[in-house]
Amino acid sequence: MPVAQTSTPPLRQALLVGSAALVGLLSILFVVTQADRLFGDNSSIGLDPGDRIYRPGDVESLAEAVAESGPLLLPDVAGGDDDVILQHLGPEVDEGWIALARPLDAPRTCNPIWQPDDETFVDSCDDTVYPADGEGLPRYPVEIDDEGRLSIDLNVVIPAG
Fold this sequence. Notes:
By secondary structure, the protein is of the alpha+beta class. It has three helices and eleven strands; from the N terminus they run ααββαβββββββββ.
């Protein structure tokens, strides 16, 4: 004698699907509302959405990195073509910071490359040589706050002068 197959009643199936959807929605809502607490405050480091102020970190660790490896290339920090070369030439960690850009008319593939033996930058496309302070290259304004954190204003490009 054949045995009839049983299926989950439609009401029970609808309740299971609805419960799963509710749990998923609540999970997404939790992550969205708690993102700052879970993943850190975006305003303390990195790029603040909308204001184009880039905060790469504290001057002590940045100065140490530049001293060990040379100027830091911070590629595409604003989600576009805003590559930044961060140079430190000051006698103290809170002095002598320079944020350089590539020449204004240069394509993104052309960047000043640090030459540690000569302590110069050489343009990767036309071999133009720039001194360690980046004279002849455009710059971004740099500030250091009271807590020793460096910020670069990507809203303003100071042309080479």
